[in-house]
Write a structure and sequence with these properties.
This protein has one helix and six strands. A three-stranded antiparallel β-sheet has the order 1-2-3, covered by helices on one side. Strands 4-5-6 form a three-stranded antiparallel β-sheet, covered by helices on one side. A hairpin with a 6-residue loop joins strand 5 and strand 6.
C-alpha cells in the first residue's frame, strides 16, 4: 500500500483514499497494539503496532471491502438519554 494515500491530522487521522475522507476510531489494547475500525464499517476491526501501520491496515481494509459493500458516507449519528 502506498503511504502517500494517507494524511495524518493530529492524534485522530483521516485516511485520504480515492479523494474520500474516512473517519476511523482506534484505541490501545492491553498488549500494546492499536486496534481500530473504519466508522463506516465498525464490525471490521484491524490492528497495527503504531498509527502509520494502523492507517495502512485501515486503507487496505477499505480497498478490500469497498467492492463488496455499498458505501454510504452520509450516515447519521444520534444520542439518547437514559434515566436510571
Amino acid at each position: 500500500m502506498n503511504n502517500s494515500n494517507i494524511i495524518t491530522e493530529g492524534e485522530k487521522s483521516l485516511g485520504k483514499l480515492s479523494g474520500i475522507e474516512l473517519d476511523y476510531t482506534y484505541w490501545h489494547s492491553k498488549d500494546g497494539w492499536l486496534i481500530g475500525y473504519l466508522d463506516i464499517w465498525p464490525e471490521h476491526l484491524t490492528q497495527g503496532h503504531d498509527l502509520p501501520e494502523l492507517e495502512e491496515m485501515l486503507a487496505d481494509l477499505y480497498e478490500f471491502y469497498k467492492e463488496e459493500n455499498e458505501i454510504n458516507l452520509d450516515k447519521k449519528t444520534g444520542k439518547i438519554i437514559l434515566t436510571a
